[in-house]
Amino acid sequence: MRIKHFAFALLLLPIMANAQKKNKSAIKAANAVTVADLKEHLYTIASKEMEGRDTPSPGLEKAAEYIANYLKSLGYAPGNNGSYKMYYPLYRDLEIKSTVNVNGETITLNGDYQNINGTQGYENKFSEVVFAGYGIKDSARNDFEGLNLKDKLVLVVDGTPPGYKPSGNQRGFMSPASAFGKIGTATQLGAAAVMIVYNNFPRKPMAMQARWSTRDPNAAGTAPFMAISVSEKVAEIIMGQDGKDLATNAKSGNFKSKTYSAAVRLSYHKEIETSKAPNVIAIMEGADKKDEYLLITAHMDHLGKRGDSVIYYGADDDGSGTVGVMSVAKAFAEAKAKGKGPRRSVVIMTVSGEEKGLWGSAYYAEHPVYPLNKTTADLNIDMIGRMDDTRKVGDSTNYVYVVGDDKLSTDLKKISEGVNKLYTKMELDYKFNDPKDPNRIYFRSDHYNFAAKGVPVIFYYDGMLGADYHKPTDTPDKINYELLRKRAQLVFYTGWEMANRDAMLKRDLKLEEPK
Known about the structure:
Layout: H1 2-19, H2 24-30, H3 35-45, H4 58-73, E1 77-78, E2 85-102, E3 105-107, E4 113-118, E5 122-131, E6 153-157, H5 179-188, E7 193-197, E8 226-230, H6 232-239, E9 258-284, E10 289-299, E11 305-306, E12 310-311, H7 315-337, E13 344-351, H8 354-357, H9 359-366, E14 375-381, E15 399-403, H10 411-424, E16 427-429, H11 447-451, E17 457-461, H12 481-500
Parallel strand pairs: 5-6, 6-7, 7-8, 10-13, 10-14, 14-17, 15-16
Antiparallel strand pairs: 1-9, 2-3, 2-9, 4-8, 5-9, 9-13, 11-12, 15-17
Helix pairs in contact: 2-7, 3-7, 7-12, 10-12
């Protein structure tokens, strides 16, 4: 047995030695990632002409065209069935008309009610109203307990009871005590309409421009729905004395659920404007494993502009990731031109709508061009051009935050750290990888839509959440281009190993879903 073990060990020696040896072809290809190229691309992507790359916008279309033409010039094929672009649909309210009538009295818009939201062409009549107190439901409290809300009009009071604290990590708009939290819970329980009582009427007319959304209001299965805020006067018309000064006295009230008889007619009509937004997708076909894929992504959109003069340039967020992906694409193209192309197909994708809710990556994840079960990994870049001023340890000129390498696959960290040790020797900082980190970075960029489908992901990030984050001052002159180059090279080397190794990455770890 000892002799056999010794012989087996001898066989392993050249394999182990080869694993520790730098690949000359990879090094030559990585040299294609240059400061000059990165700077040229970023001063274009984050230029005045791109107008902040809002989703959707003419500036975003210009950026997508620039990226697609560049990838085409490198020899990449169209990645979406003959096209370099994948468009997804958008919708928004163009004009809204509504009426509210309670017990024969027409309620005045802005005087005693305002619209929150609703479905197109909503018309409904109710003979009773279900009062559900504060309308809060979480692990510690349930104001809807015992109530049948199916197809009912539900009335709740704004605010929270004395001493209330939301359970779990839900805060702000996500809190079960927010207006949207109360509406969401009521609709999940079957309510057809919701009124929330406030004590701040009359109000000024809302001058809010409707926002784009990926949700089709006319999609099959969308239940008719209307939600409005109403005054205490409306509550009193419905509830009698029980509703007098309801929201004003809410802090001292211990509400009890009750159903009131009332004749209520609601209508909500809106015109829907449609648009579309692009993702850019290009592919380099692999050699012997061309039916397996490596995905390299970044989001090319940002916040657009305000008026005619204030532009949110988005140089770091995420112009730096976009040009990083472009430079990685060039490195793979250089390798292929020298006869050393990847074994797996490399898919380069810049998505849009990240700033609005990860729209573009979500659309691809639901409509993948290439099978996700054959996608070995996604390497996603969102902000790699600057330094984190709050980082007080290590060398801030030679680091990158790495997120996700300990999730979904035990192969990820071994590859990431092995490649870095061999080639780039950067400080891999795992600060944002901690599940308890309040920033929840793992769930906040496009890689998460792929992780949710089981694709192993690594996310690269510089941690820049300082004074220029989401400000017009995020400009290309503030980028550390040498650090951007090193980080992009790390992504390339990591991708090179994943694209050329014998086996796809294992999927042997369970995804930690957010609470």
